[in-house]
């Protein structure tokens, strides 16, 4: 904000005749006033342009292009297209699915385009009826506690608050969710229903993909029936033409100057050398690793306590937030791909979208080397989806390899089983596929086009900014496991973090790109409110921050409410993380009660859920009689579900309610943010 200074003019009364007339004074005041406003207006405009929030532009887009791209209707009309596929994506899967649908549209004489709702004026949906045989398809993920993804938030709010007449809009919706979470596909279901309420016509029933099972199978099955419905609705037939057309073309960049080549930056060239606030998903902060220590006392597993230095970054976080960490693939896997495909990984290249109207000019920052693309931009460790199997067929010189790929790419029961067994169950990634099907030698640029983007990894922050304003702590288990084919798969992020050990000498400290993601997982506004925290294993992470914050308040002389923690691990002498800290909080009164479950320290396994059932009176006293808050962090698949069932049971018994009343009571707790979960599957 600009600070304006006023100028006070004093006049002195004299008996002599003034040297300057009243008219002169008036003219002088007018001139000063005009000059004053001109100067400060100019200064203010200059300042506002300097202090305007910094926005990251895609490497290939100008601001003029972005403005013109906001009207997807104009783009559809000018290019003779009738199909637009919008995506709401947090990890890239929905965007990938949208691309596959748009590509297949050509087989049904529906030229398609993929669109990011964040970059579009979604009010233009009312004009879709002006395009003959047009259709909008939405591939949207549900994220967090039933929230839309970041790029779909504005569209979601537009649907909620608007009353546009969408009569004449033909649509279909596919949702991406996870059944282990309570708000399964909530956003997709809402969009599907709301579009119908606004007058749009549903061409095909909603598809609900479950990432806890086989979302690829869910999508492929839905997509096949989608096209059947499309053909029926529009009275068209499949052309039979294959849609294996390259979306990107290879551009030789051997003459590009080194300073114009990306080397791992997420969006802006040289962004790690010239850091600019604010930091976000497209502009992460390159943080130094200040601390990296082992938390397990013994055993063959590893759990790391890591502290990211954010001093001087202007980054701020709240207790309960998440930190995103940008990993890179191991050089061993990257080199293996180069060897298998006999490729020079240091070749500089670019992939340019063949669709000149697309706002996405490149699949990842270009130009770069193949080594950079495979290290920083592409996911080479996850299980490839069926469309990649299909694209690899043409590169197989051995008929047996070709037939195997054809089978896995098909939607027959036999094909689905083979894909499930050979890819999913045996946990093969692209490197394993190229090793086990040795005649398959895809062009490396095509492979780079096909592979999904490498995504950042999110961790619950295990510190409080009140105590650690200049650092962010995380608690991470090192991921290593043996697959059915006797290969060792390693977690991309945790294995990288394990190598980043700070040094005590003058050598540069290890760094890694991060940014903060806001969360709804929050302590009650009043420090006196009692809380129960249930966090076995690394589920303890956010509660370490909660306890630190309450301890800080206690030391300031403020009254704090009861804090009850349920923690569990395998063995007390092996993986009881932060043991000394927790015992100290019990001793000083910050932590009222610490309930511990060591599952393998006795013949019969004991888990936190067993302790929770045993302490039904304490549980009801806090959540029922004292209006306290309850928090759960950890495994969504079993632990969080079991906790929820126990809570309902306790509310029924201690609150003397029916099952229906207890469910409503717990639901109300969730709505009031008195029952919060930070879980993963």
Automatic annotation (TrEMBL):
Matches recorded under InterPro entries: CysJ-like_FAD-binding, FAD-bd_FR_type, Flavdoxin-like, Flavodoxin/NO_synth, Flavoprot_Pyr_Nucl_cyt_Rdtase, Flavoprotein-like_sf, FNR_nucleotide-bd, NADPH_Cyt_P450_Rdtase_alpha
Keyword hit for Flavoprotein: yes
GO biological process: one example: response to hormone
Amino-acid positions noted as binding NADP(+) in the UniProt annotation, renumbered to this chain: 301, 538, 599-600, 605-609, 642
Function text: This enzyme is required for electron transfer from NADP to cytochrome P450 in microsomes. It can also provide electron transfer to heme oxygenase and cytochrome B5.
The protein's name in its UniProt record: NADPH--cytochrome P450 reductase
Organism encoding this protein: Aphis glycines (Soybean aphid)
UniProt keyword list: Endoplasmic reticulum, FAD, Flavoprotein, FMN, Membrane, NADP, Oxidoreductase, Transmembrane, Transmembrane helix
Gene Ontology CC, one term: cytosol
FAD-binding FR-type domain location: 282-524
Membrane topology: Single-pass membrane protein
Lineage, opening ranks: Eukaryota, Metazoa, Ecdysozoa, Arthropoda, Hexapoda
